[in-house]
Every structure is written in C-alpha cells, then in structure tokens.
Amino acid sequence: MRNRMIVVEGSYAVAHAVKVCRPNVISAYPITPQTHIVENLSQFVADGEIDCESMNVESEFSAISALIGASAAGARTYSSTTSQGLALMHEALFNASGMRLPIIMTVVNRALSAPINIWNDQQDSIAQRDTGWIQLYAEDVQESADMIPQLYKIAEDSEVLLPAMACMDGFILSHVYEPVILLEQSLTDEFLPSYSPEFVLDPKNPMSFGAFADPSTYTEFRYKQEKAMGEALERIEEVANEFMEKYGRYYGGLIDGYALDDAEIVIMAMGSVIGTVKDTIDMLRSEGETVGLLKVRSFRPFPAEAIRKALRNAKVVITLDKNISIGKNEGALCTEVKACLYNAGVRTPVIGFMLGHGGRDIPVSTIMKIVNKAKLVEKGIFIESEFADLREDLV
Amino acid sequence: MKEIRIHGRGGQGSVTAAELLAVAAFEDGKYSQAFPAFGVERRGAPVTAFVRLSDKPIRLRSQIYEPDYVIVQDATLVDVVDVEKGAKCDGIILINTEKNPSSFKFDTKASIKTLDATKLAMDFIGKPIVNTTLIGAFAGVSGLIRPESIINAVMERFPGPIGEKNAKAIQAAYDLMETQR
C-alpha cells in the first residue's frame, strides 16, 4: 500500500477524490472561510482535467441554490464550504433534502462567530443536524477523500436520494500534509455508477420539484425523508464494505471500534480527534486500563441500534463533543447517545466532555484527564457534562 | 517518533519547509505529517509549523509540545518567541545566524547548533530565502533524512534552475552540519 502513497495536503486529496467521481457541476463561493478544495477543483476544470461546469457565485447561498437547480436537472453536483458559509446556506439545505437531491458537499469544520474565529470545531455542521442531510465525519485525510465516492453511491441510490455532508476537521485535516493514496480513476469508475435519476427537470417533460404541499400531504413528505434516512443507514454499511472490496480500505460503516471488545470505559468521538484518542488508549492499555474507542462515523442517520450493541459491555461512556448546545450544557453526541440508551433500559453513565472549541488543541494529556475524571463515577462522583480544559483564569 | 517545530516569519516559507520535510521523509521510508500552527497569516509575523516523522503511520493530531528538534529560520525570533519551549533535553535547536551557539543564553538542556543559512542561500540561490537551506542543514545535523531525498522533494516542488540552485544550497548546508552531528 505504501508504494501507492504520496504526501499531499488534505484539501488536495479531497479535490482529487471529487475529480475522479466525475461531477457535472461544482459551485462555490471563493472567499474566506474557504479551503484549497475548490481552488484545486477550479484548477482541474481550467486545465481541462475534468469535463465539469464550475460556477463561481456571489455567496454560499447562491452556491447551494445553483446546485439545487443543477441536481434537479440530473447533474452530479459538488460544493465545499465551512463555518459561516454553511450557516448562510441553512435555508436552502432544507430545499435540497426536501427535493431529494443527492448533492455532496465537503464541510470543512470550523467554528462560528461571534467572536470571530477561523479555527476548527464542529459547531457548523452540528448546527445543520436537522436539515435532512446525511452527515459522515472523517478521521484522517484518506477517509475524507474516500468518503466522497462512498457518499455519491449512498446518496444517489434510488431508495435514498438525500444530500450528504462529508465532514472533515478544518486545518487539522484540510491543511495537513500526510501520505495518502489518491483515488484511482479506473477503480472509481468501476465503484461508482453514473448518476441517472428517474425524475429530472426537463423542458421536454415538465414536472415540479418541491412544489406546494398542504397539511393533507406535507407530513408524508417528512415521513418519506425519514424512511430514506433509514435506507441510508443500511447503505452506509454496505457501501463501506463494497469500498473495502474494491479499494482495500475500511474506516467503519456507521461506527467503528478500537480496543472496544473488553473495554469498560468507552470513549465516543467524531472526526480527527480519533487518532489522538487511539494513541491515548494504547498508552492507557499498556498501564492495564481497559479503555476503548467507539468512533461515530455517521451522525445522520444516527446509528442508535449499532451504538447500543457496541456499548453493551461498557461500564462508563465518555462522549467528546467539539460543539455545544448552549442552554443544554451538552454537546450533540452526548445528548444523542443518552437518548438512544434510555428506552432500551440501559443505565450506563454517559459523561459528556466539550472540547476543541474554536481550535483549542487537544493533546493526549487532555484525553488522559478526561478518562481520569470519568473514572470518578466508580467512586460515586458523577459529572453530567462539562468543558474540558476550561481556562478558569478567564472565566 | 521524532517531532520537529519550525519557527519563522510569515513569508519565509516555514510551512513549505515543513511540507518538504514530510515529502522527503516519506520518500526515505518514514511516515510523516506536516501542518502549520494555524494562525492568521501576516507577512513578517511569527509563524510556527510542525513535522512528525515515524516508522509507523501517524495518528496523533495535536500540536507539538516537546520537540526533538527546533528549527529557527530567523534569529531575531529568539527575542520575541520562546523557541526553546519544551525542547527535549537530548534535542537540538538549529538556528539560522552568523553567531556562535554560545551567544544564545537559553535555559534548555537541548544542544544549540547554528549556521549562516542566509549567507549560503545568498551564495547559491541569490535570495535570502533560507527554508530549503535549513532543511538541508536539519538533515545533516539530525541524520534522519538523506540529503538526496530532501533535494528530490525540492526539485519536484521547484523544477528547473530554481530547484537546482536550491539543491546546491541544501547539499552545502548538509555537508557543513553533518560534521556537527
């Protein structure tokens, strides 16, 4: 595998992955906060390396709107955005999912203002949780790239037809140089069939998309979206396995475990912090601690069943969230994990830690500290949820 | 695993130096990771970049707090940035300066190595851009990367006469610092 790897920037690896998926229309707004992803893609288009319409528009709202039109006309579409750009798209994200358009968008996760901050956290995509988009979170650069053809295959499935976000941590993954295998065109052509939707906007055969639905039918549209997410739950697993067969790489489908089988303390996390957690677990394991990791790869659809099964031997569950629902004093993963255990009658303590906000670094020592705090539960000291690494001198 | 921290000023190519080290080390058979200390980039302002080299794939994503090596592109940074911070006792701090190592008053137990990379860069490249010269010096003083791998990485990134001039500066810096290993 090593001899096929080269060292490139994360953004380049993702742009290359998009290229080999042969999109028809790419639209983005090229201002800060942006990344090299669309910059590289524009270069590919300008150099004639892909036969694709690249639309430089006047805002992120226009970028997603352009893709909604293009996707409805039957095009394979792509965009990339981050932070405030994603927030500006919010209204149209519902249109994309409600119209059942399999648009793929890399969200380079960054903090939201105010105060102004350009660094990484996951508040931007978590805030779009209920827009009806699939959301997968990548652990490293290779996964950020490999997710692109996987998501096209999942999203364009006629039983799914939902838009999807490939979430990768800003800077930590988008700006890192590390060895990756650039996706091969020939393998990707075999893996990913061309997109040929049954229903398209076509002047020769006029039809309406996202038209009026009064109270007698609106509910059923929502029901169908939820049902499609249920289908996605199946397809995410299947496609991860198909990808493994074709390319030889696997990151989990909905979830993935590390040192999980006998783990009494299970750390749950999403995104690039997982690498650091794995290193921490190796250190703790060498000291005899039975700590493991449950990586959540799919946040929407939320894999409640798979998580319940994976946590059945856990004595304590720790959730790591690079976001906060202000007023709940919890991150989204914490809330969701608690909710999925309750009706199953599982009363394993779930302890939430919020960290890495606005780019605050997450060293091994922070994960160690969190594990030690969570262990206090065994002595009857229960922490519901708290900020890790809060600077007491500033508050 | 070996960890490297590079200090420079915006515009001096610290991030490029980190990237080139990662490319060269990978070609040399190591796994590598390079990333900037993400800041708001301004020309002339202090910037930091990080590199990890390992025999195994690298999973750790945090910044580097206890570097084995520190590379300082501009000696004036010593007055404004704590370049010795966290440096390992058996580590090396490599500074671009015409001064001797003894002229730096550090608390660190890490050894200080100096070279006049600016002069080498002026001699061979004709410009005071020292990033490639310094990574050549790093390869020399550390013995972690072969000079040919550094030169290949630089030539690939800057093909033609510019790359060739850089290659000469890299080899000269390597030869000079190899004796100080």
UniProtKB/TrEMBL annotation, chain A:
**Coiled-coil portions:** none
In terms of Gene3D superfamilies, this protein maps to: 3.40.50.920, 3.40.50.970
Entry keyword set? Oxidoreductase
Q: What is its EC number?
A: 1.2.7.1
Any GO molecular function: pyruvate synthase activity
Top-level taxon of the source organism? Archaea
Residue ranges occupied by any Pyruvate:ferredoxin oxidoreductase core domain in the UniProt entry:
263-366
Q: Write down the CDD domains for this protein, in alphabetical order.
A: TPP_PYR_PFOR_IOR-alpha_like
Recorded catalytic reaction(s): these are:
2 oxidized [2Fe-2S]-[ferredoxin] + pyruvate + CoA = 2 reduced [2Fe-2S]-[ferredoxin] + acetyl-CoA + CO2 + H(+)
Matches recorded under InterPro entries: PFOR_II, Pyruvate:ferred/Flavod_OxRd, Pyruvate_synthase_PorA, Pyrv_Fd/Flavodoxin_OxRdtase_N, THDP-binding, Transketo_C/PFOR_II
Q: What SUPFAM superfamilies does its record include?
A: Thiamin diphosphate-binding fold (THDP-binding), TK C-terminal domain-like
- The Pyruvate flavodoxin/ferredoxin oxidoreductase pyrimidine binding domain, residue ranges: 17-240
Keyword Disulfide bond present in the record's keywords: the answer is no
Record carries keyword ATP-binding: no
Biological process, per Gene Ontology: response to oxidative stress
Describe the subunit structure: Heterotetramer of one alpha, one beta, one delta and one gamma chain.
In terms of NCBIfam families, this protein maps to: PorA_Arch (NF040682)
User: PANTHER family from the xrefs?
Assistant: PYRUVATE-FLAVODOXIN OXIDOREDUCTASE-RELATED
What is the protein name for this chain? Pyruvate synthase subunit PorA
Automatic annotation (TrEMBL), chain B:
For this protein, the record's Pfam families field holds:
POR
EC number per UniProt: 1.2.7.1
Task: Give the source's domain of life in one word.
Answer: Archaea
**Which InterPro entries does the record associate with it?**
Oxidoreductase_gamma_subunit, PorC_KorC, Pyrv/ketoisovalerate_OxRed_cat, Pyrv_flavodox_OxRed_cen
MF-aspect GO terms: pyruvate synthase activity
Q: Which residues form a coiled coil?
A: none
Q: Which UniProt keywords apply?
A: Oxidoreductase, Pyruvate
* Range of residues in the leader sequence: none
The Pyruvate/ketoisovalerate oxidoreductase catalytic domain extends over: 10-175
Q: Which reaction does it catalyse?
A: 2 oxidized [2Fe-2S]-[ferredoxin] + pyruvate + CoA = 2 reduced [2Fe-2S]-[ferredoxin] + acetyl-CoA + CO2 + H(+)
Query: Sorted alphabetically, which PANTHER family does this protein's record hold?
Result: PYRUVATE SYNTHASE SUBUNIT PORC (PTHR43366:SF1)
Kindly provide the name given to this protein in its UniProt entry. pyruvate synthase
